[in-house]
Amino acid sequence: MSLTELTQKPVFTVQPADTIAKAARLMRDHSVGALVITDETGVTALGVITDRDLVWMIAEGLDPQVAEVGQFVHAPLHTARLTDSLSDVTRKMREHGVRRLPIVDQEARLIGMVSLDDVVMLLGRELADAAGAITGEIAHERRIGAAHKPARGA
After folding, report:
1. pLDDT of residue 34
2. Contact of 109 with 44, CB cutoff 8 Å
3. Which pairing describes strands 100-104 and 110-115: parallel, antiparallel, or unpaired?
4. How far apart are the C-alpha atoms of 67 and 31, rounded to whole Å?
5. What residue ranges in the chain does DSSP mark as E strands?
6. Which domains does the chain have, with CATH numbers?
7. CA distances from 36 to 56, 111, 120, 122, 138 (A)
8. What is the chain's pLDDT, residue by residue, as a tens digit (154 residues)?
């Protein structure tokens, strides 16, 4: 399984000087729960701002029209690489207590995002495929068993 299959594209981004209000509008407009904060080029990931960050901001009384997303940039930024395995990604999420990881290439350029939801849905599909294989095997065994059963009264 390649991490490319889990990569959410496009990745929606904001820059540090953008307001929280702008971030909220982007999340709403694109039906996403997180945005990657990038540098001015839009290429280098600096952080992630989530819908939970917006709730925190409101609870703290910050003005979303004035407060900037740059205050949600926390070092170090945890990322995944396309070469990471699914196990690597889930381990990083668990270790760092995050549900989303920006995916970067060898030059640390942003190329996607992977979420815990993506991982769970993939694993669910794989488990369903495995269950289907087991069900098919059992049905096949029953057909073979019935074909080899001696006839009654023989």
Report:
1. 94
2. yes
3. antiparallel
4. 22
5. 13-14, 34-38, 45-50, 80-81, 100-104, 110-115
6. 3-115 (3.10.580.10)
7. 17, 11, 21, 22, 47
8. 567 777 767 899 999 999 999 999 999 999 999 999 999 998 999 999 999 999 998 899 999 999 999 987 887 899 999 889 888 999 999 999 999 999 998 888 999 999 998 888 888 877 887 888 887 777 666 666 666 666 666 5
Angle between helix axes 51-59 and 20-30 (nearest 10 degrees) is 140
Sheet holding 100-104, edge to edge: 80-81, 100-104, 110-115
What letter represents residue 67's amino acid? A
* DSSP code of residue 21: H
Say if residues 89 and 80 touch (Cβ distance below 8 Å): yes
Residue 3 structure tokens:
């991490």
Q: For residues 16 and 143, what is the distance between their CA atoms, to the nearest angstrom?
A: 64
Q: Which residues contact 47 (CB under 8 A, 6 or more apart)?
A: 36, 37, 69, 72, 73, 74, 77
34 in helix, strand or coil?
strand
